[in-house]
Design brief:
Number of helices: 4
Strand order of the largest sheet: 1-2
Order of helices and strands: HHEEHH
Structural class: mainly alpha
Strand content: under 5%
Shape: extended
Distance between the termini: 43 Å
Largest sheet: 2 strands, parallel
């Protein structure tokens, strides 16, 4: 046939990137993740949307306009187990005007990430399963 073939057919890294972007014919992740692009399309229709990864930083949830959040990357019981100990340092970093556009953007995204994860943790703590379905030993924010 005359169709394009996937890049790096015998490379695990290339195939992982291809699976996360659904663009195996290209050798870079310039097209962002498939999940993030779907979230971009939903957000473009004026719906509120979020995209996230349950296993650390990943390409799949990254969109052009919707940035992916990271949940449960440590497998711990808390979204941020060291938060109370580091709260003053975090407040100092995020509450200071740094006078540098890169530092300002980092502090802004850092605060958004902390707020998102702590807010989601609180929502999950108060969530109730609406079905009788049980999985023995299953804990959503813990490593399986």
């Amino acid at each position: 046939g005359t169709g394009e073939t996937c890049q790096g057919l015998f490379s695990h890294a290339d195939q992982q990137r291809a699976a996360e972007t659904l663009t195996c014919q290209y050798s870079t992740a310039e097209f962002k993740g498939a999940g993030g692009r779907m979230a971009d399309a939903v957000a473009a229709k004026d719906f509120k949307t979020q995209s996230f990864s349950l296993r650390g930083q990943a390409t799949w949830p990254q969109g052009f306009d919707v940035s992916g959040e990271v949940l449960g990357s440590s497998g711990g019981e808390s979204a941020f187990p060291e938060y109370e100990r580091l709260k003053d340092i975090i407040d100092n970093i995020t509450g200071t005007q740094h006078g540098n556009i890169y530092c300002e953007e980092y502090a802004k995204r850092f605060q958004q990430s902390i707020s998102f994860n702590l807010g989601l943790e609180k929502q999950l703590e108060n969530a109730e399963l609406q079905t009788a379905y049980e999985i023995s030993g299953y804990h959503p924010l813990r490593s399986q």
